[in-house]
Every structure is written in C-alpha cells, then in structure tokens.
TrEMBL record:
Residue ranges annotated for the MobA-like NTP transferase domain, each copy included: 268-429
Protein name stated in the entry: MobA-like NTP transferase domain-containing protein
PANTHER family: MOLYBDENUM COFACTOR CYTIDYLYLTRANSFERASE
Organism of origin: Claveliimonas bilis
Highest taxon above the source species: Bacteria
Gene3D superfamilies (UniProt xref): Spore Coat Polysaccharide Biosynthesis Protein SpsA, Chain A
NCBIfam families assigned to the protein according to its UniProt record, in alphabetical order: matur_yqeB
A family per Pfam: NTP_transf_3
Length: 453
C-alpha cells in the first residue's frame, strides 16, 4: 500500500522500517531544518545530506511526486520537505501516519486517508484519527488504541540505562548549535558537550553520545540537543532502538488490520423513515448545534476508503451526502418500510461493487454512535470472516450491523417494516457483538429521546 508518514525522526524511521520490510511503499515528509537528535538512525538527515541510510534501508530526498514514485520504484524510501504534508492530496495514500511526535496534533484529520494513525499524545482515536499508538515506555508501549488517547506527556524522559533527565543535553541559550563532540564519542560528567548561542552546554552524566543535533541548526534555550547513553554500546548509535521498533510494530498491526479489510466492505446509512412516532422530520431536528443527520454524515465521511451510500427521500440529506463524497440513493416509497430502504441500499452496492464481501448497515437516528465503534467492527471483520458483526451491549445485538455476502439473498427477501434482525435471529451462533455503551446504541424515536443526549 501507499503510506505517508509525517515526520522522519528516529521514531518515525523505526515505523518506516516495520512498514518497509512488510512490503509497503513509503513517502515521508519533513520540515526544512530537522531537529532530530538521534539523526544517525533517522531518515530526516536526508533533508540536508540528500540521502540517508539506516541499517539496510535508504531514504532519498525528492522534490516532486514523480520523483517520489521513481525512488519507491527503485526499492527505496522517498522523503520530501513538506511540513504540512500537502502532498497527501496528490499522493492519495492508503494510510497516513502522524509521527511528528509534537505532543499535539499539528493538522492531521481522520479524513486524510482511509486509515489515519496518530502516534503518541495529542490525538484521540475516533475523532482526529482512526487509532493511536502508545509511545510511553512501559507495559503499554506500542499498544494500538482504537478509542481514546495515548498516555499524556509527563515531561520526564523515559529511563535508559538507569538515567532519565540526566541523559539529556539541553540548549543553554538561543542561537546556533556548535557541537564539540560527535555521536559515538565518550563524554564525562561536567564536560562541555556543545555551545548554543555562545553558551556552554555541560554533560550531566558520563556515557556515550547517542544523539546530537547537527552543526549550524538554530535552537532555543531548553531545547533538547543531545542524548547520552550510560550503556555505552556503540552499536546503539547506528541501529533503530527497541522503543522505535515497538512503536513501529503497533503501527504495522493497525496497517495490516486495515489491509485485511481494504476494499472488501461497503457502508449504507438508512435515512428514509417517516418519523411517525416523532411527529415530524426528526432527522432535521437540531441536537447540540447541528441537525441529527449530520452525525451520520460525519461518521460516513470518516471512512473515505470504502463505498458509502445513504438511502433517503430527504433532498437536504442527499445534497449533504454529495458534498461529502457519499452516494445518495433516493427512496420515494418510505411507506414500504425499513426492508425497502435496506434493499435499495444493498442493490445500489451490488451495482457499483458487485465483488463486495459485506455491507455495514446503520441508521441515521443514532447520534451517540462513535466512529471508534465502527472501526472496531471493521477490525473484528478482519479476524472473524463470515460472521455477522454488530454493535451491542452485554452480548445483545444492536446497530450498526455488518452483513457478509452469504446473507444478501435473505435480506433481499424481507418484506414491510422488517429489518435484518429477523435474519439475525436465525443464526445466533454466527453473530459477534462489539461492545458499545448504552448511549451509543440509543436511537431517537420520540421527542423526549432528544433530552438524553
């Protein structure tokens, strides 16, 4: 697959290594003046050196997408100076990985790619990305989080060789970086390691220099400019760290899970009800500042890598779907019941994508449903092929429901106001429930239901 990685520091390089060795095409983006301390194991130095080798891989600096394709075609990793990753609009990646490690989101959106991965603090899975990978050293390092955020930044570096804050070299003043030692050198506690803005930077411990910013780069007081390792293993200066490999493994897990379902499933949102119990057009009612139907539109938009449809007779909803790149299916006979809407959607999917292996059906009056819950349904489909997978509570099924192709025939035979639940009851052993909270599963049937959100 085509994968865009924002950032090319040492941790981003560890991620790239996992993905590259799994056969994916990698394009990385960087700023004009990289500030990577462990630059001997980072592709970011290709910005000022033209190319960078790390272990058995090479990244080459490119200036256009055509050059990037040529580099990737040669079996290498492409790197371009593009801090905002604008090239993603032309590259159209399958996956975007934000590995800038800025401790905050600098612009990555869940709609940037079919799979958007945030690395470390600053991202919330299900909102600005599909998943987050934990970066804090410890028991959960490399964990893939599909609902929530990584552990917050404590400001205290992780322990390496028994040392934490002592192992860091920090700028003593604003100005130009002037290193006195190189990566791989030994340094003694109290030794001057560099000058920043003319101010001396002293080593707070003895050990081997594992990282050091390049000469001439501009720094500000307090910025990390170097890293000392008490273990004094010279090989560590030239090879990817355990932490970077663990984080890369988490990203690879998410990517491979997405690849397992890529192109196999479609999404259909049913929005053609008459609102008889509500008393009027409930889908246009405003909830927390936006129409009820917008919640479903946003959830569909978050999964741009799939065929997406909305079945409705509402002209406003059809126009909104068009703006978001979602196919609209007109239901002119809502009185025929939910079975008619379901079948219109399924027939549209089969016309557009006859090879589809399954369809996820959802309803438009379920405002509390999380994007992360839908993502968990896709994940379950990757490891439970052929199962009917739905959101639910305590093992009891609810909406949405992912239907494998083998049940399409029975769905097309439903009549009246009978939905897929009738088919599901025939195959209880084939149903797998992804647990969700009650608020997610609640739909809006009556006006009083609006008050619970």
């Amino acid at each position: 697959m085509k994968i865009l990685i924002r950032g090319a520091g040492d941790l981003a390089t560890g991620i790239a290594a996992r993905l590259y060795h799994s056969g994916h095409n990698i394009l990385m983006t960087e700023r004009e003046a990289p500030l990577t301390v462990r630059r001997t194991v980072a592709f970011s130095r290709a910005v000022y050196e033209g190319s960078a080798k790390v272990e058995d891989m090479e990244a080459r600096l490119v200036h256009s997408l055509d050059e990037a394709y040529a580099v990737m075609g040669d079996g290498n990793i492409a790197l371009i100076v593009d801090e905002a990753a604008e090239i993603r609009k032309e590259f159209c990646p399958d996956v975007v990985v934000d590995a800038i490690l800025a401790k905050k989101n600098l612009g990555t959106k869940i709609t940037d790619a079919p799979l958007a991965v945030g690395v470390g603090p600053g991202f919330y899975a299900g909102q600005d990305c599909h998943c987050v990978v934990e970066t804090k050293r410890g028991h959960t390092l490399g964990q893939v989080i599909y609902d929530g955020a990584a552990l917050p930044n404590t400001g205290v570096p992780g322990e390496v060789g028994g040392y934490t804050t002592e192992r860091l070299l920090k700028a003593s003043g604003d100005g130009v970086m002037e290193p006195l030692i190189s990566i791989g050198d030994m340094v003694e506690k109290g030794q001057i390691a560099a000058y920043t803005g003319g101010e001396a930077v002293y080593a707070a411990m003895s050990g081997m220099v594992r990282g050091m910013l390049q000469k001439g780069v501009s720094v500000v007081k307090g910025m990390k400019i170097g890293d000392i390792d008490a273990r004094c293993e010279k090989e560590h200066c030239w090879t990817i760290s355990d932490k970077a490999r663990a984080i890369g493994g988490g990203v690879l897990e998410a990517v491979q899970c997405y690849e397992a379902v890529k192109g196999r499933f479609a999404m259909v949102m049913l929005a053609a009800g008459t609102g008889s119990r509500y008393g009027k057009d409930k889908l246009s009612e405003v909830l927390a500042g936006k129409p009820l139907y917008q919640y479903s539109m946003e959830r569909l938009e978050a999964f741009c890598g799939r065929e997406r449809f909305v079945v409705t007779g509402n002209a406003v909803i059809l126009e909104e779907a068009k703006k978001r790149g979602i196919s609209g299916i007109v239901n002119r006979e809502p009185h025929l019941g939910i079975s008619h809407s379901l079948q219109l959607g399924l027939q549209a999917v089969l016309r557009e994508k006859p090879e589809v292996e399954g369809v996820l059906f959802g309803v438009c009056d379920q405002p509390g449903l999380k994007v992360s819950t839908i993502q968990k349904i896709w994940n379950a489909a990757a490891v439970r092929p052929g199962k009917i997978i739905c959101a639910g509570k305590d093992g009891q099924p609810g909406n949405p429901v992912l239907w494998p192709k083998k049940y399409f025939g029975e769905l097309l035979e439903l009549k009246g106001d009978t939905g897929g639940r009738a088919v599901m009851r025939k195959y209880p052993e084939q149903v797998y429930v992804v647990e969700a909270d009650e608020r997610e599963l609640k739909d809006i049937d009556r006006k009083e239901d609006m008050g619970s959100f």
